[in-house]
Amino acid sequence: NARRIEGLDKNIWVEFTQLAADYKAVNMGQGFPDMPPPQHVTDALVHACSAENYRFHQYTRSFGHPRLVTALAELYGKLHGRTLNAFTNILVTVGGYGSLFCAFQGLIDLGDEVIIIEPYFDCYEPMVKMAGGIPVFVPLRPTPVKGRLQSSGDWSLDPEELVSKFNKRTKAIVINTPNNPLGKVFSRHELEGIAELCVQNDVLCFSDEVYEWLVYDNREHVRIATFPGMWERTVTVGSAGKTFSVTGWKLGWSVAPEGLMKHLQTVHQNCIYNCPTPLQEAVANAFSVELSRLASPSCYFSSLPNELRVKRDRMADMLSHAGMQPVLPEGGYFMIADISNIEVDLSGEKDDEFYDSKFVKWLIKNKGLASIPVSAFYSAENKKNFSKFIRLCFIKEDATFEKAAAILNDFK
Ligand code: PMP
Ligand code: GLN
């Protein structure tokens, strides 16, 4: 194998998605909705594939189908409070993954350090390494609470620890808000602190905002690219899969200044060239529907979080009832729960794994419920300190909840 992929062969999704399928488990592990996407979104794809639209079955513009980049420039222009050029500030990629990959490959050089906040969406680490960079980790630290559920807001960075990670070799920091797996929504104040460090140290920011519409309890999704001095150094990542509940479409985008974007484009044109035209046409149509009702409660960007807040609360009740200690997420569609108080016999599982991994495997095999071990979202040095949590996904229909509840009730 090539040296740049040395040691990167294990992948949590490949392993646990297969295990969940093998045991036909109730799947609250991998993050995908098991309910239908909005009708207008699926209709748009049917329309884009219809005989009269035969031209959409051919290649389109490499860096993004013109209708889609135009819609994205209009939307993100509003959200960022600046005029965006559809053709130089937007890149359409294969999922949010594709945007992240282009950013790391296009902007990180051999020996560059990249700061990653833990827990983190697992692919950041191998992507930094494949680019020749060195990941530098800084954990969110939980503050214990009494008399109420812990919230993802009770997990925060130690400002001094964060400062200590910046040095001459630091090229970029990756942030993810709302965060996967914790559900933390970084506050304006927290982002301001990170932005100041980026500007002072001349560091880039890769801001993974794929769950940008999913914030609860009047929390605000704040975009780091809007802080002083940040637009010119930020690549913002979005995902149609998360925005419209169509994760199988694997369409995403980056928003960035032209000076950075041209390097992402170079990577994209040399590995993907262009994303599927019918999907891009359909997502453009889906955006035009939502753009016309952006402020209305019927807009999917408002109705989906309203629906998910109820599911989040139901999941927290269900996990508490089973004796776990959930951490209530402020955003996204995942919840982590502390399993320290659950007593199960894990002697049948291999001993060279972390406790949470053994627990998750046991739960799939013996109880038929799939979740994801949270140690998968930590660096090698920190896994041991965070190995008693599991992550569950709550963008699931009521029937799935009922099956999961029946399994969890068995614990008492
Ligand atoms: N970032 C985060 C935080 C995610 O949870 C995901 C979900 N897979 C992605 C990026 C990738 O998104 P996509 O499915 O559009 O590639
Ligand atoms: N983002 C989703 C999750 O965290 C899916 C991950 C994936 O497919 N790699 O579960």
UniProtKB/TrEMBL annotation:
Any GO BP annotation: L-kynurenine catabolic process
Subunit details: Homodimer.
Entry EC number(s): 2.6.1.63, 2.6.1.7, 4.4.1.13
Catalytic activity: an S-substituted L-cysteine + H2O = a thiol + pyruvate + NH4(+); 3-hydroxy-L-kynurenine + glyoxylate = xanthurenate + glycine + H2O; L-kynurenine + 2-oxoglutarate = kynurenate + L-glutamate + H2O; L-kynurenine + glyoxylate = kynurenate + glycine + H2O
Keywords: Acetylation, Aminotransferase, Lyase, Pyridoxal phosphate, Transferase
Cofactor list: pyridoxal 5'-phosphate
Family listed: Belongs to the class-I pyridoxal-phosphate-dependent aminotransferase family.
GO molecular function, one term: kynurenine-oxoglutarate transaminase activity
Domain spans labelled Aminotransferase class I/classII large: 25-406
Function description: Catalyzes the irreversible transamination of the L-tryptophan metabolite L-kynurenine to form kynurenic acid (KA), an intermediate in the tryptophan catabolic pathway which is also a broad spectrum antagonist of the three ionotropic excitatory amino acid receptors among others. May catalyze the beta-elimination of S-conjugates and Se-conjugates of L-(seleno)cysteine, resulting in the cleavage of the C-S or C-Se bond.
Cellular-component GO terms for this entry: mitochondrion
Protein name per its UniProtKB record: Kynurenine--oxoglutarate transaminase 3
Pathway connected to this protein: Amino-acid degradation; L-kynurenine degradation; kynurenate from L-kynurenine: step 1/2
SUPFAM superfamilies for this protein: PLP-dependent transferases (SSF53383)
